[in-house]
Here is the input.
Amino acid sequence: MSQLSTRHLLGIKDISENDIQLIFETADNFKDVLNRPIKKVPSLRDITIANIFFENSTRTRLSFELAEKRLSADVINFSSSNSSVKKGETLIDTVNNILSMKVDMVVMRHASPGAPHFLSKNIQANVVNAGDGTHEHPTQALLDAFSIREKLGDVAGKKVAIIGDILHSRVALSNIFCLQKLGAEVMVCGPITLLPKHIDSLGVKVEYDVQKALEWCDVANVLRIQLERQQIKYFPSLREYSLYFGINKKMLDRLGKKIVIMHPGPINRGVEMNSDVADGEHSIILQQVENGVAIRMAVLYLLAGAK
Amino acid sequence: MQKRLVLDQQQIAIILKRFCHQLIENHDTFENTVLLGLQPRGPIVLDKIVRLLEEIAGVKVPFGYLDATFHRDDFRRRDFPLKANETKIDFLIEGKKVVLIDDVLYKGRSVRAALDAMIAFGRPQKVELMILIDRKYTRDYPIMPDYCGVKVNTLESQYVSVEWVEKGFEKDAIWITEKA
Here is the structure.
């Protein structure tokens, strides 16, 4: 099949393993396109895409915009900080106004979990979730799994530890769904206050000792402490967090095996990992960014191509 | 289902040999020539041509596979997008003589897309088209082959099926069949 089972990409939870494999196979071809002297294809030349960002974003917005431009789509960008949202306009009104300008697809980031689901039920355009609150960030999970597949050959059977602020992370949840659908074993590791209650009901292992997590895994996906989402103190200080959960090169050297280090960005150097880890031989952080464009091209191409 | 044989294994072999001699005649030492097989079915013909050229003239001509899926003009006009195939071109075609190779020429739309896709690898000096089967009077674009195996009369209700030993068939053969 060369068709996704859905018109929208709202979360990894809603798509099948076949969908993920189709996105990967399509992204392989787009990665090849991105390495050519001319990196652009005309596939989406009659498609208009609105990037609607109600929350700050650097790499996701740039990555989506670049993917859209590489596919020759017309792109309009919207961010809530300089828009009528500040004047009290509702989400559906804002989006309908944008859609009346004949937009075919909407890429949206929103602080409220479920916002893209709500949107998809109320508008005709295809919706791509670029992060909804602490819920899901499907394209990040796809590019993470794609990067593991590229580095290790396959995702199935691999052990992946997600380390850090799991409670506030949409990347963690999407990663858990994606990696499990592809047959990987997943562990979460972090301070007990930053692990959601009943997280083990998702079928993941839970570990509180980061060195043990590193010893167990083939891949460590390290997450940022999301201070902007924390209304209360979950740990005494960043210094203490770094001491107990930060990863440095000595810890990796002690393992006696090579593991892959990932991070969805932005990195707080010296907090969740030191520079010698982020820039070290184990790290595929920049490959993740590169793969992000190919994955997003694949998602947009497959969604736009379905009637 | 009605089925009519157009070319059998021996006839295909004769045509491929003729193609090679025509290429040798036109491209001499092949020092500035590259061959590109159009995915998904052109690479099989291309591989045979590459092998035969080495046998007949002792030349190793650079070759690659070109996929034009992302350059097609029927995106969003199908029920779902076509799945792309591998593009494998390890050289630039800037200033080269390019021979595009495919099995069947029908509407000419795939070749148009391929010309578009090819430009991503540079500006060629010249482009030629090699086709095993030319379906007459079916063209939507002004595209004609430079090297042609046979021209056949076909109806819209028919399609040309190409069978290769490499694809698990007993013998190489090309048929015209009625669409189901």
Remarks:
- The longest helix of chain A spans residues 285-305.
- The mean pLDDT of chain A is 91.
